Fold this sequence. Notes:
- The chain is of the alpha/beta class.
Amino acid sequence: MPALRAAWEFAELLGMVYVSAMRITPELFGAFLQCPTKCWLKSTGEHGTGNAYAEWAQVQNESHRGAGVDRLRSASIPGECATSPPAASVKEGTWRLALDVMAQTEKLESRLHGLERIPSEGRGKPSQFIPIRFVSRNKFTQNDKLLTAFDALVLSEVLRRDVDLAKIIHGDDHATLKVKTSGLVGQALNVTVKVTALLASQSPPELILNRHCPECEFRDRCRQKAVEKNDLSLLAGMTEKEHKQYHSKGIFTVTQLSYTFRPRRRPKRMREKREKYHHALKALAIREKKIHIVGSPELKIEGTPVYLDVEGLPDRELYYLIGVRIRNGEAPIQHSLWADTREDQMKIWNAFLSILTKVRTPILIHYGSYETIFLKRMSERYGKPADVSTARAISTSINLLSVTFAQVYFPVFSNGLKDIAGFLGCKWSNSQSSGLQSIVWRHQWEVTHGRVFKDALLTYNAEDCQALESFTRRLLDAGTPRTHEDPERNIVHADSLTPEKKTKWGDFATPVPAFGYINEAAHWDYQKHRIHVRSADPPPSRAPPRRPKSKKPTKPEKVVNWPEYSICPTCKQMVQGPGQRRSRILVDIVFGRDSVKRRVVRYVFHTHRCPHCQTCFGADERFRRCYWYGWNVTAYYIYHLVGLCIPQRTVVQMFNRLFGFVFNQTLNYLKIRAAEYYADTTKAILERIAHGSVVHVDETHASIKGTSAFVWVLTNGREVAYVLTNSREGATIQKLLAEFRGVLVADFYSAYDNIGQFRQRCLIHLVRELNDALLDNPFDEEFRRLVLSFGDLLKAMVETADGHGLKAHFLKKHLAGVGRFYKSLTKAQYQSEIARQYVKKFQKDRGELFTFLSHDGVAWHNNNAEHAIKAFVWLREVVGGVSSKKSLDEYLTLLSICQTCKYQGLDFLDFLRSGEKDIEVFAEKHQRCRNRPEGDIVGQGGGAKDDGTGQSISVELKC
């Protein structure tokens, strides 16, 4: 196939694959699917020994294949069945069935178990060929399908045509399954490229133990190597992804991993959920050779425990042995219920139910899900028991694995019953006893009916029941509340562990008790506060200084005359005559040319009552409430809190130290004062954004007193607004932008799908996603070509935007390139799964990826919103997760104004000091007053000019 040759040419071009004389066979292909190390060892000619199950499975496969070949030969018409025909004559053959066909190319080789030929249906229509593969198991896996696809791949290379269909003959009944290989050939092709790279390498792959190891003939060899290196893969249950993550952090051994565990207190909202599994704690238990417990595992046995262990053949769904162990008093009773055939299953099931009815309040205890499935299937097949206590015991059986998982960590590498019970002192009479070995013994008994195999199974099952009882007793003992560490029971409660404290000088360990006392006395604090003080007369005792009480200021140092207004703000009518003179004395700070000073300021207002609408006006809104501190204090405080992201307590300490204030722990009421004052300002910002032509939207996580929440940011490039919601559902943001008819710039979150008339998806998100997928699939040539073509297309657009800006007049020329790109996607017939996935994504989002080419001022990324999100993230680090919803809303109100000032190039502190509510109006005044001397009062300011002498002066404020 052309795709196969192109894949290798591409890999050789990158230097990943070198030409190798070794062809890839189904044995190497199948071994790679199970484990790269197994594939490497097979390629070097090494033979594994010591695994009886692997040897038996190989014999079974050969026997099943031979029997299948004989059945096909006997069922075929004489003269239409060929054996080992030459590969060159396959196209010209007249046979209907060929057996043992050798197909090989330059790099691939496969000995097909069988090959079915369907004659041509007419002129111009070639004959069809269907490869046949035999699988001895009754249930086949995805790897069996990929092996069949490999046969089809090799055959298609030989025939120079596609092979879209194959057959798998499997199981005891030789059932036939048709497999469509067209969707699997791409995966098989990727695997062949990886195998080629592996075989061409000069060094073996990294050894990683996996689930296939118990069935592998190299099991003992690999495990010995892993034990010598103390490799992380010894920990059963660790995924390949987790293994790579630990390696990226420089953790390669179990011992190294054990030092990374840190006990953490779970938040309240997570205490109801199950604890996640900690590989580091498992490693710590192995290192210390102690049982470690997380939380309080609950195991309640209120009745007579009945220990259950079942043996069966999983691929045939046959249960042939039920082991039951009951302890009434001191002597245990063991029942072994044996079934010779499938028909005997009902008999042993009824016998099992009969045993349970004789037990008072039976409690079934087993280990693993195999027995859970057994109880469910047998109840469905043969009916549930009529006895109430028996039915309750079956429906409420206790799976010890679910009880101990992620809560009890034994110092063994796996969570299997054999390993845990072995640590607890249980032993098996046959060292080869295991679940896989029981399958071998059962098959050998079925062939020979030898007593030795049946006795081995009965003994193995009874010892499993005994181990289950020992494990249950130890688990009940471990759940008894004790101290965090119990040397007698060899148990450690991980929740009470304290992390090791690292000191500058290290721990001082000595066998001499006096040295410990002397070392403690040698600390500098001890020398200063104890020895030096005792060598002189003790200082006279004094009462602790009293904290000065905050008093309302009475003597003003500055006088600020507020401008008089004679027009009613409600009805716009002129008011005749002078207003009533009123004043407020407040503690404030004044901003000089090069200084900030504390002053007691008297603010003088002239108030009026409108005779038309009876509205009182004249006193500024900022001073209507009874505060002791002026507006400049509020502005300076908000500037530090929101503009500079300094914690409240730190700001309070700075105010107390530099200005001599007597503030309490926080000045939260100043934040509330400012948020209420600017509430209308934020609403106006949000209104202008929602009725604009372009909106950038993004969201991030927030926390309200430990409860999850989300903050949405909306910006048009000049103004920013933050909105708090309880969830990430898009109902709130859709309601806010219900009347928006412009272009929405956002990521690929589905909540943005129906907002705005046009949408521009953030192409930076797509580029990063494509890049990560390409790194995960480095040998996928089709996908690489797709990514490269998209990258070249987008690069040209970015270069145009960099030179001419976001103007549709210059960018619309790239619409033709977009059309050619999508036309190439339609023509290309991608075989790669990842390539087809992203082709579908490109086609789905076609109308939302290149909207910026047709609209002025629309960016191809969402950086405006992401920068605004970063501002909230910085503030979130200061605020923490203890704020209430009201408090966080106040922060977001002030942050909206802060970021809007930043986006427009305005000073946030100047805007706060001015008292202006409309940022656009402030921007115009700021432009007019830019050339004023520094220190002049601008706008209706809340401060007074300082002459440097400290004398009281009167300042008339003018706009």
